[in-house]
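subagent[fold] <- orchestrator: predict structure for attached chain, return tokens only, no commentary.
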Amino acid sequence: MGAPQRQGWGAKVIERLAHDLRTAFPEMKGFSPRNLKCMRSFAQAWPDDEFVQAVLAQLPWYHQLALLDKLSTPETRRWYAAQAIQHNWSRNVLVMQIETRLLERSGSAVTNFEASLPKPQSDLARESLKDPYRFDFLGLTDEAQEREVEHALVKHVTEFLLELGAGFAFVGRQVMLNVGGDEFFIDLLFYHLKLRCYVVIELKGGKFKPEHLGQLGFYLTAVDMQVKAEQDNPTIGLLLCKTKNKVVAEYALRDTAQPIGVAEYQLIESLPAALQTSLPSIEQIESELGGGE
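subagent[fold] -> orchestrator:
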């Protein structure tokens, strides 16, 4: 009995096949054992030739490897593949969106859009919001105050826009509105290119409270009266809180006529107290660095 038969199917088949292919086609590349294993996994994962030719053909090979490596079901792979094509994601962005569970977070904010916006805008608006929003890129802990988070979001506006999703355009921070001689300041103002409307984002450093909606609703009215053009759709509000009781948010939004969504945002978790006390302070580090001067 020959060696391949004694070893059984699969023991060295891919390695031998890779060797035979390289020998038969010496001028062609891509026949490494690893690549052949990826090709086999690809064929098993995508039996639908029509989908492969119509959709996956638009994605580079390393994007497709990320879909195979990071995701286990055809449905989730199809969703992320479509998003990567639609938004022209790089491979790194695709991996980041998968690892931060974009699919599970998309369209999950508590909103009243179904009652306050006409279709299909209500569906698009709901799909444009997430819950929770991930602000790990700011490098802030849960002790950060509202203004610290707001300032850091503007400083890292590129990453912030990526987390908000496609369609958001940054207008300004602490946008001043003069109403009857009194000045009011909106935390963050955006314009959504697909929804064709302004989006007012307010940050709250604690738990959601129903009274937060009153302030945000006032800002929406002011933007509609003073900023919105005639061709723009009604302004949408997004209230970002550290935590929320979903039922309380749903009750609070039920009688609110203006289109508002409520979602949580997440920062880096606080360090344990024991670890905090063992770490040097900024002053100590600066003193050490400047010790030789």
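orchestrator: received. Logging for downstream: The longest strand covers residues 168-179. The radius of gyration is 26 Å.
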